[in-house]
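Researcher: For the annotation table, I need structure tokens for Onanonoxo-7-onima-8-eninoihtemlysoneda. Please keep the output clean. Sequence:
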Amino acid sequence: MAHLYRNARIHQIFGANTDVGKTIITTALVRASASKQRTVQYLKPVSTGPLSDADDIFIKRYASDLQGNVLQTCLFRFRDPVSPHLAYNLERARNGDSSAARLKDGDLINAIRSHISEIACSSDQRMDLYLETAGGVHSPALTGTSQADFYRPLRLPTVLVGDSKLGGISTTISAYESLLMRGYTIDAVVLFKDDYYSNASYLLDYFGERSIFLTSLPLPPPMHSDPDENFTITKEYFADIQDEGYPEALVDHLDRTHMRRIEELHSMAGRASNKLWWPFVQHGLVKDEKGVTIIDSAYGDFFHTYNALPSETTPTPNLMENVFDGSASWWTQTFGHSHPSLALAAARAAGRYGHVMYPQAVHAPALNLAERLLEDGPGKGWACRAFYSDNGSTAMEVAIKMALRAYCKVHGKNMSVKEKEKLGVLGLRGSYHGDTIGVMDACEKASVYTCEWHSSRGFWLDAPSVAIRSGKTMVDVPESVSACFELAEDDFVFDSPATLYDVSGRSTSRLARCYEEYIKSCLRHLENQGSPRLAALVLEPLILGAGGMKFVDPLFQRVLVDIFRSTTVASPATGRWSGLPVIFDEVFVGLYRTGWESCAPILGVTPDIAVYAKMLTGGLLPLAVTLTSQHIFDSFLSESKADALLHGHSYTAHPVGCEVANTTLSMLREQASSTEWSEMKGAWCSPKTSNPRRQDTTMWSFWDPSFVNSLSHLQSIDNVMTLGTVLAIKFKGSAEGYQSHLAQSRLSSLSNNPDDELSDFAVHYRTLGDVAYFMSSLNTPLEVLRKLESKIISTLNNM
């Protein structure tokens, strides 16, 4: 949880290095704040070494003469005068608890958060709180994590204590850049004046160019060997610099930055309402500024949002809320927000390349990414080329261009220009592939994602859907599909979701024959009607995302692909491809969003073209890739420039995006083999699908099976379904579909942060008419998911 209070100003003190005077400067700040008749809280999360040398004892010793109320707190104290992580390990070894559970980063952060909340909310009197870290910016925290990463979830405004000694210019700038790259706000840089090295004067210009406030304090006196004399000299030093106004000027500056931050956040909703045009938002329904989510920062699975009207149950309520990002920010987040590994990858490529020209050129990030995707990624075994673009919609535009050309190369020799212009695609009703004009035309006209130029080019089949209803795993078969084949009740019900997703095991079922008859009859009807030729099959595998989170029966899609290819196979005589291209739009479902790297192994069939985006870069920035087989690439291959794929974007294969994507793929591979994933897979595995050889194609979910089962029995719920990180809930009582506000109204209280046992976070979620969906990142802690599940159940039970 982030912290922001009107009457309580909080700053975190980082040091550019060890022994730069953090505690002396912090003591000066504490004394200056106390002299303004404020309550001052000094917090030292971890202290190591003898109690007599502890920083909180130092603060107490030199602030005891002040009239203001000065409080000192240390949360964790260890006797050995070494780095916190070493002191903690030595203490564990001394106590003989080396096998006991270790403290986790979350445990310590929660302890700090609780203390800050308790102190800041305890009184409406003016308060300043200073949190002092240990050592330098990257000194290990108690768990061994770099402090720059460890304290990031708090994102407290920061005062950086610079290094005034030899080499201090470098360490100070390095520390500043390390914090900046992790999203910290540096409100001030402070260091001592040293006339010989003159670091302060150099850094004054450096930080001035970056609009960062810098001030310098006189050097403290050398430590005297006599403790009493040393106390007197040091006390005089603090009195002298206070008389000269050094720390007061710094406190005044910190006060101003604190108030500016609140004023800026408070004004953002109104300014946004007057200036911005949001996507997928009807501005006529945004009646006031309360409907605007003000995101101050994001970390892990959470937004830190500004709350202009916080709870009035405490004297000084926190103006920040911890809000779970329930849509993974439109399905993009892979490892949560602001992951340091991805930020470093972006910085690495930005510093090395920026952006460089790509056509007929190559740079390492783009080449490495293509090789990984093709040789050991979702394209393994079928794809030979990678074409980069900016986002999922443009990547699908590319895919359709490729497919049309490939079709015409084989089948269009006797086609006129007009016939080629009328080529269509085959797809599923309710599908969605993006908002650019070409991919709009690859969807039915009845879709809400249209514009005045929209012209449907193809035919769309009714697709059976998968759902869990009242604890039963079922296939809902549209009447148009079942009308041509006699089915029994037990054809629609399965003993578990895992059994339903065993496509190969269902290949000879009555449903498979029903699907085959329906698809063939539709194709015969199209042929008899003289409809335009179908040049490609375009599918969202497994889930129709924006079309309402409709989970499609995978058996139907497998049968559809087989039929589409059944009469158009490679010629035995020439070996040349003569089929119809199959496109998998895996922008949403790919790269483990649904539990698998690609949906191809589940369906048991590979595409000719596949598209990936969103999670490709961990959700950090836009990048998309269209993978193709050799025969698709060959359709554009000649010695004529006119035959080339004349499509591109100014930022094609952006090195920053490619480098981040490479890091993401490495992290994905590690995550996929984690113990946590194995346990989740085991929870969903049925006896019929427990064969270890099939673990990679077994249906599983991050969401607990008992929770999903409980949801499916609720009276207000029509059905529920889940795969991987995705959970979809369809409510009863609406016939308006996408235009309904039913799901939004039913879950509205999730957006609040009630004062109960589930109050550590609210939930930001998105709905699609009568369907609400939630999704996590691939590394969301299970305790967070279980808490979210409890909030969802509690909300629906209290509806």
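Researcher: And a one-line annotation?
Model: Residues 57 and 213 are 29 Å apart (CA to CA).
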